[in-house]
Amino acid sequence: MMNVLADAKRELAGRAGVYELFAHLLLNEVDSKILSLFHDEQWLRCWEDLEIEIPAVSEAGIERLAVDYCRIFIGPKDFCPPYQSVWEDGHMQSDVITSMNEYVEIVSSGASQNIKDHAGVQFKMMSQILQFEAASDEPPSTLAHAFFVDHIAWTEPMFSLASTLAETDFYSTVLESGKEFVASEKSVFSLDAID
Amino acid sequence: MKTSNSKRQFLKLGLLSVGTFGMFGCDESTTPNENSSSDSDDSNSAPSSSDTSNDDTSNDDASNTSTESASRDFPFGVDIRKWKAGKGRAYEIGGQRMPGICLLPGPNAKKDWPPKDKYQGAEKIPGMCQLCSTVCGIIGYVKDGRVLKVEGNPNDPNSRGRLCARGQASLNHLYHPERLLYPMKRVGKRGEGKWKRISWDEALTEIADKLRTIREEGKQEEFAFHQGRQRSKDAIKRFLDAYGTKTQLSHRSLCSGNRRAANLTYLWESDWDLNDCENSKYILNFGSNAFEAHQGHVPFLNRIQNGRFNNGAKMVTFDVRLSNTAGNSDEWFSPFPGTDGAVALGMCHWILANGKQDSEFIERWTNVSVQELKEHLASYTPEWAERVSGIPAEAIKRIALEFAAAAPAATTMCNRGSSAHLNGFYNDRAINLLNALVGSVGKKGGWCWSPWGGLDPIAKTPAMPDSAKTWSVLEDPPEYPLANVWRRMKVGEIVYLYLLQGRAKLQAYMTYNLDSPLTWPEESLTQEVLANEELINFHVCINCFYNETAHYADIVLPWTTFMERWDLDARASYNLRPYVGIRTPMIDPLGESKDIRDFFPMLAEKIGGGMEAAYQYGTTEDYMEQWAKEIPVNEVTGKSGLERLLEEGAWENEKTDPFYEPYKTLLIEEELAGSATDSNGVITKDGIGIGVMVGGQAMRGFKTPSRKMEVRSLFINKIGVNEDCSDLINQSGVTKTKSRPKQHEGHDLDIDQMPIWLPIDEHQSLGQDELIMTSFKWNVHNHGRTMNLKWLAEIVHSNPAWLNTETARELGLKDGDWVELTSYYSEMLEKVSPNLNHREPDESGRRVVSTMRVPIVTMQGLHPKAIAMSNSCGHWQYTNVAKAKAVSDDGEHLVGSDPKRYRDADWERNMWWEDKSNGDIAKWQQNTGNGWNQNRLMPIAPDPITGQQAFHSTVVSLKKLS
Using the beta-carbon criterion (under 8 Å), do A6 and B46 form an inter-chain contact? Predict the structure, then answer.
């Protein structure tokens, strides 16, 4: 029984970590520190398992990734807006923000990004929720489930689009894996039929 | 991706990641925790509850804590008690909505009507629109940090609560999915469209380094600031003066240079006539489309209609095209393009011939006599005007007498229709003369003006730095004598040409709310220069959207919208007295967008060298408080200054009398003490004009050299040939006026002292296949900044050429046919302005500007020798809405509009106008696509006197396409 519980906690922590990783990648360009970290042996093994190739740490490589990140998520045109409002209503700051405001009352992300329905912010909040649950002695609440339904599930097609826009192998495969991850999370929350 | 294993693989990755990228409460860009990445034991174990020190039973007031304190007080920032105590519990039992779930409309849930509590609890925040030049007062309904709706502010004395479609579309502007939200730096070649995001600090440091170098070289004039529509005059001037450059370029000459100059010749104290239509009995409109555009637009339109329907005014419009203004007039006449002035002079002649002039006004208050006018106008008979304009002499005579009979409650109005011609200055001089003849000048219901072109002078900006002293040929081209003598109207359309010709050099170029490739003449030349790093070494673009100018920038700075920034603002009010309006941040700026008021001080600090001294006023809000501090108290609310403006949105001093007949104001003894009066009755004090003796009384008069309304302008004649005009300037009292600088020497031009009419050479011998192109604006667009707004783009998105039905028949054309238009440079300008010639003639000896293929629509509402195309269309950047693309260029996706990927119900239902012809004109469907940039055909064609771009004088030939 203890082992089962420990495994469950460990799984929650692991999932929280993936959300944290994607939150960072959605909100930020990859810099040399992050890229160096990704070249750490343990990290490389994980990337290899996921068939994601990590580019070498070089100024040109970092620049290429920055340009790719920009054209995927920043623009200035034909980009993939990482904002839930845009995906659901076609413009920024839709009623999605009202819902996010209510969640922010419960989960304080502390993100500097001021657009609350940015996928990165939402992933960060989800990470916090799961870390909280991993650390809690109480039975899991409905919070993670509800937040996933309201503010994470929408990202699956966003990752898909972002992946197709990517010109670097790194972003192409990482973002594809983001899609896979959200799909797997749907299974966790028994939401396979969410579409 | 090995899907079967992915969950386990993700867990491994997640256990490495958890805690690595910054815990809650830290910026997500914080340096990763190296320990967590290397400590595999830690990463393989779940965080223990002891790591999270807070006892979740310890804080009974948790639900009241702020977000910030929550991040400190709750493990991982999660206040689970609040969840469970409130919505969470209800959710578990399925009793009430969860956050967001029911509020998300989405296409499937979308109803025709918003929830009835949508505006409940919304805060009403005043502001001022900036989607055209009129700056109407608005109110934003703000709830949950979002603007839900925008409507007109009834407290705005000029717009009176009215708001046009553009203003209603403010939400499209604010919440556009393709807004620029982060600073970006060009990667690769300029114009290649490759960018990377940079921080504000990086951006400002790079810009500062460049500007500092130029400044230290003492070449400040090689930094140009080029503005499109701007309403933060003080902020721009502060920065440029502190820096030390006077190379501030504008688009005024593309807009209203001739009209302003014509008004200034008569008045000197104002360049903007405010026709008192609300109190008028007769409105004579020469080419103004006030019902759709015009600087006064909604405020003006409101008063015109009040004059017509409440005061019985008649409105007659002369316009080449049956605009919505013309169509709503009592009578419409279509003169030959560029002949408005001839019609006006014909009317003047007839009024005098019939003795219907106001002789008393002419003799007392103008600087000409009735007899002089009769002699001057002798040859401008209505029959002559008919030959020139095509308007029947009998109609000219009838309307002239109707106009005179209605005086003094009679006024002309005009704008670009008459003034944007190569003879536009004289056209507008002639039109204005009608008011002098019938004595309606400054009269209630007549042709009025006010000295307050902007804010009530009670609002004084905090101390400004001294003005810059540099000179640049780009800002003050010597070929255009009236461009900059009274006001800096400049000659914006020559900027890129002069750079190409090597007449000036720009080390740094900062563009601001400018879309010159689309709105400037000669689109291809503009692009060529903007792309050339030799000609423009460094280009910083400040804008809300990625437009055709941003495409050629080196750094793009995301600008706040007018709902996210501060200004005090006002226009010349049709109430004929000044007011103060306020533009406020209704919400926090989205993303990392910033206003110049916020980043210019940072930039000045980085440039250093004393520039920072210009920004010692504190925060932007401190600055606004100082600026607004003299706004008096509202006796009812007890609020004054900024606080009052923030509540009411605008303030007008109702104790100020409307500016009627200011020239009749008697000078008081104190004013006259120590004054002298010359033989012409001009009263001066210390050599500066203060008034005039009229009928034995000392009066204020007009602020002209003669202190009379100057029908005859000796000043313009002398200025034209570079004579010193100091004496005349001093007599006027408008001492900010300057004689032309030494750099203008050798650039003489003969400017007639009297209102005349000049034929345009190439219009006199048009070939059968040649027409004169005219352009126009729609009531839902401005020139270059609204086609990205989908509510507006749906209404107007394309601009086939208008052609008169009879002309089309003669040319063998019918509705929907395609033509190839070829445009030509002006033959008249080739002789008068050789500085413009930059293309070799073709084999026929003519200089071709460009060719363009467009479809036509035929109608009777256009002069047979004209062809009309609206502007605003033909964007090739500026969001996919402006490009009318349902599928992006790469065929994959489209921000906010692709029904397969985004859930934009508006777009799914309504984006029906995408052009699917793929360039095959045989397959093109009417009213599809995003139209054509008419300015591609327009030559750079400044009126030789003022520099006003002659948008309506270009000759084009037509060739039918099969």
Answer: yes
pLDDT of A4: 76
CATH architecture under which domain B762-961 falls: Beta Barrel (2.40)
Q: What is residue B783's three-state secondary structure?
A: coil
What is the signed CA dihedral for B81, B87, B90, B91, rounded to 10 degrees?
-110
How high is the pLDDT of residue A140? Answer: 82
**Residue A138 placed within a domain:** yes
| Residues of chain A contacting residue B186, judged by C-beta atoms under 8 Å apart | none
What span, in angstroms and rounded, lies between the C-alpha atoms of B19 and B125? 42
Residue B106 pLDDT class (50, 70, 90 cuts): very low
Beta sheet of B539-543, edge-to-edge order:
B195-197, B184-186, B555-558, B539-543, B508-512, B223-227, B248-249
Q: For residue B636, what is the DSSP state?
A: T
pLDDT band, very low/low/confident/very high, at B48 (cuts 50, 70, 90): very low
Nearest-neighbour CA in chain A from B560: distance (Å): 14
| B890-925 pLDDT tens trace | 544 444 444 455 445 565 556 789 898 988 999 999
Average pLDDT on B758-772 reads 96
Low-confidence winner among B65-74, B178-187, B556-565, B829-838 (lowest mean pLDDT): B65-74
CA atoms within 13 A on the CB side of B71: 13
The pLDDT tens digits for B387-405 are: 999 999 999 999 999 999 9
Alpha carbons B855 and B872: distance in angstroms, whole number: 17
Residue B696: other Cβ atoms inside 10 A: 6
Note the ipTM here: 0.96
Which string of b and e fits B740-750 if b means at least 16 CB within 10 Å? Answer: beeebeebebe
Tell whether A68 is covered by a domain: no
Residue pair B580/B644 in contact by the 8 Å Cβ criterion: no
On the 0-12 / 13-18 / 19+ scale of CB atoms within 10 A, B557 is buried
**DSSP assignments along B76-122, one per residue:** GGB-HHHHIIIIIHHHHHT-SPPTTTTT--HHHH--SS--TTTTTT-
Please name the member of A74, A106, A151 whose beta carbon is closest to the beta carbon of B78.
A106
Instruction: Examine residue A7 and state whether it is found in any structural domain, yes or no.
Output: yes
**Number of folded domains that form chain A:** 1
The confidence band for B6, taking pLDDT boundaries of 50, 70 and 90, is: confident
* B956 and B821 Cβ atoms separated by less than 8 Å: yes
In a domain, A94, yes or no: yes
Domain B268-449 is of which CATH architecture?
3-Layer(aba) Sandwich (3.40)
Q: Give the three-class secondary structure for B830.
A: helix
Residue A16 lies in domain: 2-27+81-194
The reported pLDDT for the residue numbered B21 is 84
CB contact under 8 A, A102 and B17: no
Does pTM top 0.90 for this prediction?
A: yes
Average pLDDT over residues B31-38: 35
Min Cα distance B518 → chain A (Å) is 18
Bridge partners, residue A83, by sequence: A118
Q: Long-range contacts made by residues B35-42, C-beta under 8 angstroms, separation at least 24? A: B37/A37, B37/A40, B37/A42, B37/A43, B38/A40, B40/A42
Domains of chain B, by residue range, sit at: 3-93, 184-253+461-558+591-622, 268-449, 662-744, 762-961
Name chain A contacts of B6, Cβ cutoff 8 Å.
Answer: 50, 177, 180-181, 184
CA dihedral A89, A91, A92, A97 (to 10 degrees): -20
Q: Which CATH architecture has domain B184-253+461-558+591-622?
A: 3-Layer(aba) Sandwich (3.40)
